[in-house]
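Example record

One chain of 125 residues, shown exactly as stored in the release files.
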Amino acid sequence: MQTDIFYRDITKTENLEAYLLEKVEGAISEFFKYDSDAHLTVRVETDRHRSQTRKPSYVCEVILKPSHMRTVIKVHKSDENFKKCVAKTVSALKIILSKRSSKKSKHRRNDPVLNRPAPTEEWAA
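Predicted structure tokens for this chain:
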């Protein structure tokens, strides 16, 4: 999987990059285990700078382009705390991917035990 990280008004450090890669790639690794052509773009920026009267605001945006789907998955979250902003984005991305997962759509489709009709009174006697 190809991963690009873009920073705007945030100082790029190795720890910050490792943190973002760990969180975002860790969240989608189980869904895109076999898709090596997927493209992941992470953008982090300071939306509002710190002043004497206000806290800074951060924005985290994740754009995911799977190779087997035509749709692009885009998640955009903001918060005053950088780590909370990244956590909100990752949790929203997990929810979207779990809804679109092929395993979830096939759940209980072919299980003969679950598709069996309910027992009636005649069977119990």
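Notes: The chain has five helices and four strands.
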